[in-house]
Design goal:
346 residues; mainly alpha; 2 strands; 1% strand; globular
């Protein structure tokens, strides 16, 4: 309870400190919320730039915008919703770490999630909550509920689909994997009925979104030349990622996902700064002290991005150092796995 209260106090304090922060994403929330409240279809034109996701969070945006009539700041409401889900993530980290209080403490005070959630206002903690909960349920053999929660995570934001192969390998009843379509399909059908949109426009918006291309890792070294094969490189990366997911297997789904995320952050062609939220609970559950330096540089990258927009060299230096640390962490993890396998065979 003490750790939970500490996490809540830190997040509410940061929410207050960053209450007047404004950015493109926060303005997008207001725009989409207002249009949704007025029953105006946002797909594909508005959604392509301001809401490249399935229809879910836009209802929360509309609710928050409605509260503006009562002089309640809608951005504060949305960030507070994020905090609630992030506290849920704290509890799931506690459960997935076999109720380790030190692990829960590391998650409670980690600056990466706090900055992205309370300053930037990104809502990746919501799909992360349903993803972690689905992993916990599959661990305790509740497969149907697990896959439905995985489906809900994918509806909230589509990035959990990256781990569909790993999830599939953990299922004893492989056929229920089809349930992953339930909530995304429901959300699309419901929106088309309510807002007279089309399935094609919604689907096209989701498929067309790919984050910021060529601003991360080795891709930043290619200059303008990289733009010549943007779509092809993204396709090649996704094929390689899912192939890697298929070939690799670990008894622990948390450790397996962590390895996949290392692969993702090393080789991804597309990047947005809120992606850091995805990996934090897995780093902390597996071995928080081992990854403190990586978490520190992720936080430093965020701070440089948020506070020094004109210091491009400093931004690029912190990003590149973080990328190198991802490579080191991945190679270190693979070496340890090989050593364990060798010891078992002796």
């Amino acid at each position: 309870m003490g750790i939970f209260l500490l996490a809540l106090i830190i997040r509410l304090t940061c929410l207050y400190i960053f209450r007047n922060i404004n950015n493109y994403d926060l303005q997008s929330y207001l725009q989409v919320g207002e249009l949704t409240l007025n029953r105006i279809n946002i797909y594909p034109d508005v959604a392509s730039f301001h809401h490249p996701y399935l229809p879910f969070f836009l209802y929360l945006e509309a609710f928050a915008f409605y509260l503006k009539k009562f002089s309640i700041n809608p951005i504060i409401i949305l960030k507070f919703i994020n905090i609630i889900f992030d506290l849920g993530n704290l509890y799931l980290v506690y459960l997935l770490s076999k109720k380790n209080l030190k692990t829960a403490f590391f998650y409670a005070v980690n600056p990466v999630t706090i900055l992205i959630t309370t300053l930037h206002g990104q809502f990746d903690v919501i799909p992360l909550f349903f993803l972690l909960l689905s992993f916990y349920l599959i661990k305790i053999k509740k497969e149907t509920f697990s896959i439905l929660l995985f489906s809900f995570a994918a509806m909230t934001k589509t990035w959990p689909i990256l781990f569909i192969i790993s999830f599939y390998k953990k299922l004893k009843n492989k056929k229920i994997i089809l349930l992953v379509l339930v909530f995304p399909v429901i959300s699309i059908i419901l929106y088309t009925v309510l807002f007279k949109s089309s399935v094609i426009n919604i689907t096209k918006t989701i498929i067309g979104y790919q984050g910021l291309w060529g601003i991360w890792g080795a891709w930043t070294l290619l200059g303008e030349w990289r733009l010549r094969w943007q779509k092809l490189s993204t396709l090649i990366f996704l094929v390689c990622f899912f192939h890697f997911s298929y070939l690799n297997k670990n008894r622990s789904i948390v450790k397996e996902i962590l390895n996949f995320l290392f692969f993702f952050f090393i080789f991804t062609t597309n990047f947005s700064i809120q992606y850091f939220v995805w990996i934090i609970p897995f780093l902390i559950i597996v071995k928080p002290k081992k990854y403190l330096l990586l978490i520190f540089f992720m936080a430093l990258t965020l701070i440089s991005h948020y506070t020094t927009p004109n210091l491009i060299i400093f931004q690029e230096l912190t990003k590149f150092t973080t990328w190198i640390l991802f490579i080191y962490s991945f190679l270190s993890s693979r070496a340890k796995s090989r050593d364990l396998l060798t010891n078992r065979l002796r």
